[in-house]
Amino acid sequence: MEEKDIYAELSSIRNLMERSSKFISLSGLSGIMAGFYALIGAFIGYKVVYTDNNGLTLGNHYANDPVAWRSLFFIAAIVLVLSLFTVVWLTIRQARKKGEDFWNPVSRRLLTNLSIPLITGGLFILILIFRGYYGIIISASLLFYGMALIIGSQYTFTDVKWLGVCEIILGLLAALIPGWGLIFWAVGFGILHILYGSIMHFKYNQ
Amino acid sequence: MKLSLEQFDKAFENRVRLQIMSVLVANESYDFNSLKELLQVTDGNLASHLKALDKEKYIMVNKSFIGRKPNTQYSATKTGREAFKKHLEALENLIKQQKR
Lengths: 206, 100
Hints:
The complex is a heterodimer.
Chain A lengths: L2 H19 L6 H23 L15 H32 L7 H27 L5 H16 L6 H18 L4 H23 L3
Helix pairs in contact in A: 2-3, 2-7, 4-5, 5-6, 6-7
Chain B lengths: L14 H12 L3 E2 H8 L3 H13 L3 E8 L2 E8 L1 H22 L1
Antiparallel strand pairs in B: 1-3, 2-3
């Protein structure tokens, strides 16, 4: 056996171990788009909260106003559905381009591991809404999302972990500084996603 | 420069077997169809190599059904993991020897 054969052998082993245990078709572009949806959502939310309907500005009172929270919740749900749809669509497209099957053991593992903290977080937020604890909803959504990302990062690019860490820090800050929720939400789900998506897009040359 | 193959594991002489082992060492378990997809080999080829690894007790086979479809999961045994590690060390030693 020649020396270059050994190197080829070792690199093929390494490549297989990586490819079989990490899902690398996650689309960076979809991150950018999800970020834009979130920014648009946050802007509409801001309008809803801070412009008046009958000569009355909700302004800082929205923190305890169920009507304002209901429309904010509605906007957030639309942003979530649109983002999920875009991520799934672009990721399938990306996998096809690479000749990879998007529905493989790794993507299944990634999905189950992501869905546990995400569904828990979603239910927790619904309970918070139901019980009227509006003030910590944004913080909870950032925290659960950040933890889901850190868990999911084991099955995809490690960069996802750092996005998760940033989301958790924002979530804690949002809990600490009340009244700035919408801003933290726009930074966490909007700006961070655009930043992360661009990094992924150029780093992995998609 | 030709190198001796003596310290290599005979079970890993075949490239596909070494590839199967790499996947199973990196993952808790893997199913037949996903392995086939990943390694780009035929059913018969993959089955024969899996059988050979099973005979060496390097892998474990777990057969079950999802609905009516058979679902066969493979995982590396402790013996298999150690053999794989030794094989990699042998490759590493060869490179070191040549550098001297």
